[in-house]
Structures are given as structure tokens and as C-alpha cells.
From TrEMBL:
It comes from the Bacteria. This is ABC transporter ATP-binding protein. One of its GO terms (molecular function) is ATP binding. Pfam families: ABC_tran. InterPro entries: AAA+_ATPase, ABC_transporter-like_ATP-bd, ABC_Transporter_VariousFunc, P-loop_NTPase. Keywords: ATP-binding, Nucleotide-binding, Transport. The lineage of its organism: Bacteria, Bacillati, Actinomycetota, Thermoleophilia, Solirubrobacterales. Residues 5-227 form the ABC transporter domain. The keyword Transport applies.
């Protein structure tokens, strides 16, 4: 399996503050990857390291087999708040993109702008949030990247604009065989488009893997109150809650749960993400090894 991104003990510090800590991660080619975690978890730091806008404090990272550097031809990047130049028109953005990118696909860019019904003479400051996001996506796609990295591109958009943006993104993935890394704290959006998930909490990777595999190996079990140390060893406890008579555990296991005392229910991606986000005070789990 080809990996588009490899990080080994990747760390980024700003003075005494650690923004990313010993991140070890592999992202396979041809996937739509959801990078999720709370604000301040290190998502933007990881992505800025991946596109060469930051240098690691320790550890290493490779993207498409190379050390990242700013302006990599095969990597498209849409930063937070879908940055555009307020005083430039749409057409001027496209000309600027063509000058900076040797692999620029002018036909793709023009066709997308026409299909979106945008006026090329209109300046970016006059565009709605959704239109600016679509312009930024157009600039990223027209670069013809192998890897497209999007950092919270829809966080400020209304639900309709978010849906349209994500629908366009998925059409582009199919048409151009892209690998995408999409950072967001809007789990419901990620669940619609992603097939691979990375959960980042407190500057550390807590979980990473194929979405279907993650959901198949995590369960919520409910039954008579039972202490954690009495559970079978193959049940790795992610989270737990108790009443006087009842225990509920969120567990990870590769084995079937056969004890009839437990009622077993399946999880959504949101259930899974929230459970791992609640582990902030615990040591980093072995989830990466188990689900990769």
C-alpha cells in the first residue's frame, strides 16, 4: 500500500508550548481522510508541517515520498478561512494561479467557475463565504495535485453552502483520483465524505484507521455493574460510565463479544470521536497498532 504521508515522532514546539507531540502516522493513497479533534488539538500544525509552511522541532515527515517544502507542485492546500485576495477578481486569481503553478489546468479552472455561475470580473470581497470557498477549492484543484489538503474549509459556512462544497469536493475526488486530507471539527460532515479517520487530541494522535474497520471493532456494551479489571483481556476499554446497578463501556476488540449479560450497540463516527476526545487525561492508546 502506497502512503502519501508518513510522520515519525513528529513534534512541533513554540517555546514552551507543544503544538504537536510525537505524532506517528501513515495516510494511504486514494483515501478521503478526515482529520478531527477539538480546537487547539494540533490539526492545523500537522497540516502546515505537511505542506512545508512549518519546520518540525523533532521527528520527521514525508509527503509523496519527499520532505515537505512550501509550494510543492503535487500538493494542493486550502488553508483555514479559505483565503483569497479581497482586491483581486476571480479572473485575476486564476491568472495568478497559472503563473505560480507549472501544472496549472486553465480549462478546469474556467469550467468550474462557469459551472458555479460566478462572474470572473467580480472581486473576492464581494463573494459570499460559500463562493470564496468554491474559488479556493478551484485554485487547489486546478493545480492538479496528487494530494489535496483542506484545513477547516467549511467551518464558517452555512449548512447549505457546506453541503454544496463537500458535494463538489467528492465529485472532484472521483474525477481526478485525488487523495484528500480534510480537517474539521464538524463530525457529521466528515461522516458523509470520509473513508479514513485520524483523531487528534491534546497534540497527540489518539486513533487512526479505515472508518469501516474502526466502526466494526468498537462497540458500546451495557450490562450489570462490573469493574473494568474483571472484563476479558481482549476488550480494550476506551470509555466507561456507571450507575449503582449498571455499567456501560465503549470497547475496542477484534473478537466477538459472546457474554449474554451484555447488550451490544453499534457506534456512529461522532460516538467514536467523542469517546477518544474524552481520553485527554489518559496515556496515548495503542489504537494505531490495532486498526491500521
Amino acid at each position: 500500500m502506497t502512503m502519501v504521508l508518513r510522520a515519525d515522532a513528529l513534534t512541533k514546539r513554540y517555546g514552551r508550548r507543544t503544538a504537536l507531540s510525537e505524532c506517528t502516522l501513515e495516510i494511504p493513497e486514494g483515501r478521503v481522510v478526515g482529520l478531527v479533534g477539538p480546537n487547539g488539538a494540533g490539526k492545523s500544525t500537522l497540516l502546515n508541517l505537511a505542506v512545508g509552511m512549518l519546520e518540525p522541532s523533532a521527528g520527521s515527515i514525508e509527503v509523496l515520498g519527499e520532505r515537505p517544502r512550501s509550494g510543492m507542485a503535487k500538493v494542493g492546500f486550502v488553508a483555514q478561512d479559505t483565503p483569497t485576495y479581497a482586491g483581486l477578481s476571480i479572473d485575476e486569481h486564476l491568472r495568478f494561479g497559472a503563473e505560480l503553478n507549472p501544472g496549472w489546468d486553465a480549462d478546469l479552472a474556467r469550467d468550474r467557475i462557469a459551472r458555479l455561475g460566478l462572474d470572473g470580473s467580480q472581486r473576492a470581497r464581494k463573494l459570499s463565504g460559500g463562493q470564496r470557498a468554491q474559488l479556493a477549492l478551484t485554485l487547489g484543484l486546478a493545480k492538479r495535485p496528487e494530494l489535496l489538503i483542506l484545513d477547516e474549509p467549511v467551518a464558517s459556512l452555512d449548512p447549505l453552502a457546506r453541503r454544496e462544497f463537500l458535494q463538489d469536493l467528492m465529485e472532484a475526488v472521483v474525477e481526478h483520483a485525488l487523495t484528500v486530507v480534510l480537517s474539521s471539527h464538524l463530525v457529521s460532515d466528515l461522516e458523509r465524505v470520509c473513508d479514513y479517520v485520524v483523531v487528534l487530541v491534546d497534540s497527540r494522535v489518539q486513533l487512526a484507521g479505515d472508518l469501516d474497520s474502526l466502526l466494526a471493532t468498537h462497540h458500546r456494551i451495557t450490562g450489570p455493574r462490573r469493574d473494568e479489571d474483571t472484563l476479558p483481556s481482549e476488550l480494550h476499554v476506551v470509555g466507561a460510565s456507571h450507575t449503582d446497578r449498571q455499567s456501560t463501556y465503549l470497547v475496542r476488540t477484534q473478537s466477538p463479544i459472546l457474554d449474554p449479560a451484555w447488550t451490544i450497540s453499534q457506534l456512529t463516527l461522532e460516538d467514536l470521536v467523542l469517546a477518544y476526545m474524552g481520553r485527554t487525561s489518559r496515556p496515548q492508546p495503542r489504537a494505531l497498532e490495532a486498526v491500521r
